[in-house]
Design goal:
Helices cover 41% and strands 18% of the residues. The protein has helices at residues 2-28, 41-52, 67-73, 85-95, 117-125, 144-148, 155-169, 181-184, 231-245, 282-294, 314-326, 338-351, 364-374, 389-396, 411-419; strands at residues 31-36, 57-58, 105-110, 129-132, 173-177, 193-197, 202-207, 212-216, 219-223, 263-267, 271-276, 300-305, 332-336, 357-361, 380-384. Strands 2-3-1-4-5-6 form a 6-stranded parallel beta sheet, with helices on both faces. Strands 10-11-15-12-13-14 form a 6-stranded mixed beta sheet, sandwiched between helices.
Length: 422
């Protein structure tokens, strides 16, 4: 019932805050660059920021039809608790009288979690440039009704069409993933120039515990983070944007990886913990698992959780996940959640080689108890999923001060983790 109420209020609230945000935009008059897509948006935003630096304003931690107006108005949520809302509803009246931001370039992350959100944000932002990273089955349950009504042939097409509103309204340039046919189908909707990034832009890729090395468009880039091969798209997107903006001198030394995107931490008993718990769909899952596969280590464990909001595709996506896991060279696979237990576990149980052990848990608390007892020392453990795995990682950290770098630090998430025994 609570979720139904939230969904019914989402767009009325979005239009309320957008009314004031439009006033701010008129007074501010920035050049708007939108970064959108099913995944990879936040990492690309951080990468672009490392090159453009203080020449622009960035929409950190805001990408929805409510979050973006909040960012334009300078409204910040702290706890994500319900009691914040009375003050939030009054905040725009003061915000519109604030002095316009000094930056004349606004680089904003924009999402499409539900039908209508892409169109809403595109009309609000009216971007000069759009960078469209990916289009996959993310939040696909919200688009199932469009398929059922016969409005589109598939969920994938429905999601791509919603993202396509940014392309449709873009004024000058749209940079897309040229390896995606779904994106290419949307090209006739825009009058802007189209620039395609594709696999041919990647020269080489190397990943280890210490760093990731890319050769993109003939240039070499080294990052101190664990990054999947698909991150080369972000590098190529950023390079193309820098060329458009005439940013001649740049480097990525100040690039910081957003929380929950394959950050690596020291764990108890000399373990290494890879935190990829921010989100999870088959596309991002595949990218991270392929990265993990390439890392050389003698004790590798993969902890994999449910992929949420998959709708009618839920069984198919989790069965596909099982097939990916079957091909991995790891010592142990641990599943967390009812979906991976129902759809992936039977496939893995009947087909995994004897050299790979398999465990499953429904509760993150039980997962933590198992890890606490069974870790012998020196394991490299990947956590990929969103079922309160960040709470499991938090309890396994060697240095408690590192908890600040984990995802979901707000009070509402602390309360929920506590209810789950974490």
């Amino acid at each position: 019932m609570l979720k139904l109420i939230k969904n019914s209020l989402f767009f009325p609230l979005a239009y309320y805050f957008a009314f004031f945000a439009k006033i701010r935009l008129v007074l501010w008059r920035p050049r708007v660059i939108v970064i959108t897509g099913s995944s990879g948006k936040t990492s690309l935003l951080h990468l672009v920021e490392a090159g453009v630096l203080d020449k622009a304003r960035y929409s950190h931690r805001a990408n929805s039809a409510i979050g973006v107006p909040f960012d334009i108005l300078g409204i910040k949520r702290q706890s994500l608790m319900f009691y914040e809302w009375p003050l939030l509803l009054l905040s725009p009246f003061a915000a519109i009288f604030k002095k316009p931001y000094k930056e004349k370039l606004y680089i904003v992350e924009a999402d499409c979690d539900r039908p209508g959100e892409g169109k809403f944000l595109a009309n609000l932002l009216k971007p000069e440039v759009v960078l469209w990273t990916t289009t996959t089955r993310t939040h696909s349950m919200n688009f199932d009704s469009l398929v059922a009504q016969g409005k589109v042939a598939s969920v994938e097409e429905a999601i791509a069409y919603e993202f396509g509103y940014f392309m449709e309204i873009a004024k000058k340039l749209v940079i897309i993933n040229g390896d995606s046919n779904l994106m290419k189908m949307q090209i006739p909707r825009t009058k802007a120039k189209i620039l395609e990034i594709s696999r041919k832009d990647l020269g080489s890729y190397e990943v280890s515990i210490k760093q990731t090395k890319f050769e993109v468009k003939g240039k070499t880039f080294v990052f101190k983070y664990l990054l999947p091969e698909e991150f080369f798209y972000s590098i190529a997107f950023a390079l193309s944007l820098f060329e458009y903006l005439e940013v001649d001198k740049f480097d990525f030394k100040s690039f910081s990886l957003p929380a929950g995107r394959s950050s690596i931490f020291r764990g108890k008993k000399n373990t290494l913990l890879i935190d990829s718990t921010y989100n999870s769909n088959l596309s991002s899952m595949t990218a991270i698992l392929n990265m993990f596969e390439k890392i050389d280590h003698n004790k590798k464990w993969a902890v994999v959780g449910d992929m949420l909001e998959q709708g009618v595709s839920e069984q198919e996506e989790h069965e596909n996940l099982a097939q990916i896991l079957l091909g991995m060279k790891v010592n142990k696979i641990i599943l967390l959640g009812p979906r991976v237990e129902k759809y992936a576990y039977p496939i893995l149980k009947n087909n995994l080689p004897g050299s790979v052990s398999l465990e499953k848990f429904l509760s993150p608390k039980d997962l933590y108890k198992y890890l606490k007892i069974n870790i012998s020392g020196g394991e490299l453990i990947l956590f990929k999923g969103v079922r309160f795995m960040e709470g499991v990682i938090e309890n396994l950290l060697a240095f408690k001060s590192d908890r600040q770098y984990l995802a979901r630090r707000e009070k509402v998430w602390q309360i929920r983790r506590k209810k789950w025994g974490l």
